[in-house]
Amino acid sequence: SSTMSLSEAEVQSARGAWEKIYEDAEGNGTAVLVRMFTEHPDTKSYFTHFKGMDSAEEMKQSDQVRGHGKKVFSAINDMVQHLGNSEAFLGVVTPLGKKHATQLKIDPKNFRIICDIILQLMEEKFGGDSKASFEKVTNEICTHLNNIYKEEGW
């Protein structure tokens, strides 16, 4: 049973777009986080290591920022690999959502912020088609994460 609103063709083009940006998971993951922390400084408050960092340069050099950037991209990569299979997709999204809701207490609006920045970066690096084909995937991810948050009483 598929709760996915993506056709097989959409899944394929989304994967193609994602593969390009995932080739440099650490570099691009870091770029996404640095942009998020710079443009939305309140998001830094969730990360004790990053709180004192003000310059983008400092953040880019930080092992913690780089490590988390890579982690974010790995998690999305797992979701992208399972786009055709609802059960497997939810198997990746659900524990991630639960952890962020209950242990880390991250405001769910931050998922939308990070997804939008990924889309911006895709458009800058690979053009509007890449962004357009991945947009549905980010909507899918955010929708599922928001549902998990609701179940956890947010």
Automatic annotation (TrEMBL):
Instruction: Give an example GO molecular function.
Output: oxygen carrier activity
GO cellular component entries: sarcoplasm
Q: Name one Pfam family in it.
A: Globin
Limits of the Globin domain: 5-150
Among InterPro entries, the record links this protein to: Globin (IPR000971), Globin-like_sf (IPR009050), Globin/Proto (IPR012292), Globin_lamprey/hagfish (IPR013314), Myoglobin (IPR002335)
* Places the protein is found: Cytoplasm, Sarcoplasm
> Any idea which UniProt keywords this protein has?
Cytoplasm, Heme, Iron, Metal-binding, Muscle protein, Oxidoreductase, Oxygen transport, Transport
Alphabetized Gene3D superfamilies for the sequence:
Globins
State the reactions this protein catalyses: Fe(II)-heme b-[protein] + nitric oxide + O2 = Fe(III)-heme b-[protein] + nitrate; Fe(III)-heme b-[protein] + nitric oxide + H2O = Fe(II)-heme b-[protein] + nitrite + 2 H(+); H2O2 + AH2 = A + 2 H2O; 2 superoxide + 2 H(+) = H2O2 + O2
- Asked if the Swiss-Prot or TrEMBL record annotates the protein with the keyword DNA-binding, the reply is no
Q: What does this protein do?
A: Involved in oxygen transport from the lung to the various peripheral tissues.
The Swiss-Prot or TrEMBL record describes its family as follows: Belongs to the globin family.
Q: What is this protein called?
A: Myoglobin
Gene symbol here is Cygb1
